[in-house]
Amino acid sequence: MKKEKLLRVKYIRELERFVNRIVDFFNKNEPTKNEITLFIDKIFKPLESIEKTYLSSEYLKALEKFVEKNANIAKSEKTPEELKEDVLKEANLLRKLKRKKSFNKEKHKKDWQEA
């Protein structure tokens, strides 16, 4: 049980690291197609060594999809500027999804509607 939880936490942390690294990379400079390919290969290596685990929440599933999609981003026909826009937009949506639960307080909404 503990081992499974450890593996799950390790996998989730590595997924989040991937997202943070790719966002930082695109925010810092205007990369070329070749630089993007090299960087993605470099940051994806740690994920290859970690065993995939079951992810239950909506955010974690979206996080995994984001990583899988962007692992092959360099093979697309888009320009580096378009790739940057797509990655940053998707990462922003991911962050919104992560914070989503902090905005929903159902117990308080009921009181307000009844009053």
Written account of the structure:
By secondary structure, this protein is an all-alpha fold. It has one domain. Helices cover 79% and strands 0% of the residues. The protein has 5 helices and no strands. Helix 1 (2-28) runs antiparallel to helix 2, helix 1 (2-28) crosses helix 4 (80-103) and helix 3 packs antiparallel against helix 4. The protein starts with a helix and ends with a helix. The model has no long low-confidence stretch (mean pLDDT 85).
Main attributes of the structure:
mainly alpha, single chain, 79% helix
What's the helix and strand layout?
Layout: H1 2-28, H2 33-49, H3 58-71, H4 80-103, H5 106-114
The largest sheet, given as strand count, sense and whether it forms a barrel, is: none
**Approximately what portion of the residues adopt beta-strand conformation?**
under 5%
Structural class: mainly alpha
Spans with pLDDT under 50 lasting ≥5 residues? Answer: none
Order of helices and strands: HHHHH
Count, helices: 5
Query: How many domains in all?
Result: 1
Task: Give the integer mean of the pLDDT values.
Answer: 85
**Roughly how many Å apart are the termini?**
46 Å
Radius of gyration: 17 Å
Helix content: over 70%
Please report the total strand number as a whole number: 0
Task: Categorize the overall geometry.
Answer: globular
